[in-house]
């Protein structure tokens, strides 16, 4: 079997998966639309997306985002908070987290670090949208050196690693 046959097999499997997911989402949307009650907890919109990248081991990695989530017992649920699409970029000594969060004001956004400084927690609550995501960081960071900016619906958080470079203590060889 060639690599192209394997890629074709994987793509057919993903196509079936997304076709099934599309049917489930469509059925859930129709069910929600047919409900006659108006609840303040009912989301005003439905937002779902995914990103497929190649992992370091050569296998595809799928990351989902939005406010439509699969349930463990089957089916889907629509929640108030949107999980934003995020990227974590690690450079020498720094970590940059970029999150797409359109529809909120800068004042609506809260960014904080967990007690162990290894998880970034992003939340926002605007007029029409709510966002929430906990992002595990690849290294411990220095909280005092963290900077965040929000422009054109994109939140960028720059963090400095606690242990820059390869870490450890260099020992001189005699």
Automatic annotation (TrEMBL):
Residue stretches making up the SHSP domain:
76-174
Q: Which UniProt keywords apply?
A: Stress response
Domain CS, chain residue ranges per copy: 81-171
SUPFAM superfamilies on file: HSP20-like chaperones (SSF49764)
The stretch of residues making up the signal peptide is: none
Among Pfam families, the record links this protein to: HSP20 (PF00011)
Q: Does the keyword S-adenosyl-L-methionine apply?
A: no
Question: Known PANTHER family for this protein?
Answer: HEAT-SHOCK PROTEIN 20 FAMILY MEMBER (PTHR11527)
Q: Which protein family is named in the record?
A: Belongs to the small heat shock protein (HSP20) family.
Could you tell me what this protein is called? Small heat shock protein
